[in-house]
Amino acid sequence: MKKLAVFAVALVASTDAALANCGVGVVCVPEISALEGTAAIAALAAVVLLAWERRRRSV
To answer: Which spans are transmembrane here (predicted)?
Structure first.
């Protein structure tokens, strides 16, 4: 549960920084390319798979 809280705080902090340039009449859209999005998903999948493998071997 503690890790979830830390993740939530990091997510909110990064979202706030990404939308800091919003003004009146300006549409705020996070700038991310397809390559960056794919890399982020790959990094997340790698972390999840490593954690799963470590847990599987420790049993």
So the answer is: 32-52
Question: Which element (helix H / strand E) includes 6?
Answer: helix 2-18
Domain boundaries, the chain: 32-59
Half-sphere exposure for 46 (CA within 13 Å, toward CB): 6
For residues 17-32, one letter each, b for 16 or more C-beta atoms within 10 angstroms of the residue's C-beta and e for the rest, the string is eeeeeeeeeeeeeeee
| Helical ranges in 1-59 per DSSP H | 2-18, 34-58
What is d(CA 59, CA 44) in angstroms, rounded to the nearest whole number?
23
pLDDT tens for the chain, 59 residues: list them: 677 777 777 766 666 555 556 666 777 777 888 898 899 999 999 999 999 999 999 87
